[in-house]
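Suppose a colleague, Dr. K., hands you the sequence of a protein chain of 189 amino acids and asks what its three-dimensional shape might be. Before reaching for any lab equipment, you can write down a predicted structure in token form. Begin with the sequence itself:
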Amino acid sequence: MTLGILGGAFDPPHVGHVALAREAVRRFGLDRLLVLVVAAPGHKPVDTDVEHRLELARLAFADVERAEVVVDPNAYTDETVRDPRFEGALFVIGADEFAQLLSWRDPEAVLARVRLAVATRPGYPRERLDGVLAQLAQPERVELFEIPAVDASSTDIRARVARGEPIDGLVPPAVARRIVELGLYHDGG
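The predicted structure, expressed as tokens, is then:
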């Protein structure tokens, strides 16, 4: 069975996350994609509690075949991948995140346990990725794949909501509705 893992804060989940998940399932023939909503990320603050982010992620990924959304209690990826269930899994990340890989806590330990599937997009500077690959002990455990460019970011979405601007097309419709119903992100977050 081919297991994929897509982790993140998902504060909130957006159409880029969904496109990444869909393409990873298709491209790698994943039997299962585990979407991990990190309860308390060690590398950045979150604006919304994990229960709301979990609910939004379940709405966002509801139509992604073979996706299951659960909470990740670990703050760091190297802790998460220590779980024996994940041995040899495919950890799916975007190119921007991969460009920061060397700043992760123990990136080599992550690569020793899982392979990385790195989604690039048209126009993304390949030299940023090559620079990281050149510094890894096991660059063969990294596979690049291209997805269409999607102009959405959680930071921008939170700012738009705080300003009272629409987020149509940036998040799945069910996510947009639930953000409004719960009154999320109106505090400038």
